[in-house]
Amino acid sequence: MKLYKILTFLMLSMVLLLTACGGNNNNSNSSPSPSASESGAPASESAKPSEEAPAKKMKIGLTVPTLGNPFFVAMSKGAQEVAAKYNAEVIVVAADHDLAKQT
Questions:
Q1: Exposed/middle/buried for 66, CB within 10 Å: 0-12, 13-18, 19+?
Q2: Over the stretch 13-28, which tens digit does the pLDDT of each residue have?
Q3: CA quadruple 31, 33, 35, 38: dihedral positive or negative?
Q4: By the 8 A CB rule, do 96 and 102 touch?
Q5: Rounded Cα gap, residues 16 and 70, in angstroms
Q6: Largest interatomic CA distance in the chain
Q7: Per-residue pLDDT tens for 62-80?
Q8: Is pTM beyond 0.85 here?
């Protein structure tokens, strides 16, 4: 039992160590970007996204057991209404009570 506790502690320590070493996966540019103080631009100007890049339209998939139930119909309509606010597209698929199809 004592060996089990020691092994568990060591495994948890390894997991924490590996997640701490994961690092930040930002754009892997070879040169670091200059900060606002180095470039001479105010912080508010450097924080703005570039106006040249077009916004991508996000796609959201929603599977429901059936569209014969008013609850799931309302749920899909609600998802589409909210997605319209955020420039997203919702693709709704009914599984007709087939779990394999829904998965």
A1: middle
A2: 777 777 766 666 555 5
A3: positive
A4: no
A5: 46
A6: 62
A7: 999 999 999 999 999 999 9
A8: no
